[in-house]
Amino acid sequence: MCGIVGYIGTQQAAPLIVSGLKRLEYRGYDSAGVCIISDSGARIEKKAGRVADLEKYVDISSMTGTVGVGHTRWATHGVPNDVNAHPHTDQSGSIALVHNGIIENYLTIKKKLLNAGYTFRSETDSEVLAVFIGMLYETLQDMELAVRTALSEVEGTFGLVVLSTHEPDMIIAARRGSPLILGIGNGEYLVASDAAAVISHTRQVVYLNENEMAILRRDGFSTKTIENVDTRSVVEEISFELEQIEKGGFEHFMLKEIFEQPTTFHDGFRGRLQIDAGTVKLGGLASVADKLRAAKRIIITACGTSWHAGLVGEYLIEHLARVPVEVEYASEFRYRNPIIHSDDIVIAISQSGETADTLAAIREAKLKGATVIGMVNVVGSTIARETDAGVYLHAGPEIGVASTKAFTSQLCVLTQFALYLGRMRSLSSEQGREVALGLANIPAQIRSILDRSEEIRSIALEYANVSNFLYLGRGYNFPAALEGALKLKEISYIHAEGYPAAEMKHGPIALIDAELPVVFIAPKDEIYDKILSNIEEVRARSGKVIVIADEDDTHIHTVANHVIRVPRTLPMLAPILASIPLQLLAYYIAVERGCNVDMPRNLAKSVTVE
Question: Do residue 304 and residue 428 come from a single domain?
């Protein structure tokens, strides 16, 4: 993985491709490269580092030709360097390939090619595939057939684009487990791993399905399965605007997305929340309503930030709907032969809708007969298309690698799902109205926290140079503590851990000294007195105490070094409001440390490999 942009048409391809690659930089990567096909052959330029490093290395305007492909790589096989960067070529240099994913049986194929006398320049699995396609072309003399034959022997995942001087007016694209879309223009076509790369040229797109290929020529395109069965392409329209993937005056995308949350949270319940009836209307679940009503167990599967949202969802669903819930890491769920019954509901949560482990988990669940629901942000994503039903987040494109607005939108949707399911069962309309009103108030409450962002920044500056952080919460706020710690470690590279506050005595208390900041999430709920006791335990060991507390808490300042105040809300909604200052704290600390908050090292936005 990470970014792919291909073009065939009448315009000069190289500047257009590089522009598209820049729109995909948020995905995380360590090298970049471009291949242009022209009458003089295939010209490839690639460089470790950023797209800007590639532009310094070569004059992009000198790469003339109207067919080409570019790639930004996130290293899986081989260190980040010029040689391992994409595109890769076959032995003759006539066939060029870019690839997202992992070829799991590349060593077997490579051994066969080495025995046949072929050699390799890089450490990558992707070059093996390029050389393999080249070997097959020598016999078959047909590019499409050579690619299709190679892919029939490949094990693993790929989002793939192939160009060749043998057939210079054609692009071949294929996908299995790694997303690709086609941009449909007027006499021109694009292929990309993300809609952000094509939106400035066209809003008309085709999402490639699993094990599907596309053949793009200037006069049209066709799609078929890798087994050579023609498929019917459905042209869809990109739903977001170009302005949504630009910074809009903010220093970073992450900060912009933090400040968008009053709007994105409102968009998550707009048209769904029915306050007077104390319920919600979730049209995407209508087809499975009977199965939801009869469900005896719900399993939530996700990764990273989405897993933290799922933990909050467990509390919400069990409280409002009284249905037992299990929350599973998708990466573990897919391999441990889980016990799944036909009346189970499996909820898959993913911002991108392309997370490889989550996608594998839902396929396992479907194979075992469960009803699978998707909660994703990206319209047309693989999880959205492969689940039985679902609910979109409506958070808009999230560019910052560290998720912010998508997390709170996930909590918005999970709360509504819990309310929807609860009202199907034993939750009264009065109880439902209380939750609905609480949700409706959240956007204004988020805005009031953002209005005090400078107070949070001043606290962040005081702790920007520490080496460790501890985040503690109880009940609904334990997952919020996990998410706060994750945000800090993702973008500032400070080691941070989240724990249930009561568990501090069972290990983490050994870490507490005068150098360790401890962040508590302490709303005035039924366990407020318990967390006050935990705060005292930290104070007794000289730890620095930062507390996120209700704005009307008149006691908390007496036991804390710093207090970040948030509006009072229902206990079940407290993690939403607590997340905002935690995001800002991480952001301001990272900026003060000089970190690249939008593209933190080693991370990718959409994790499409294991």
Answer: yes
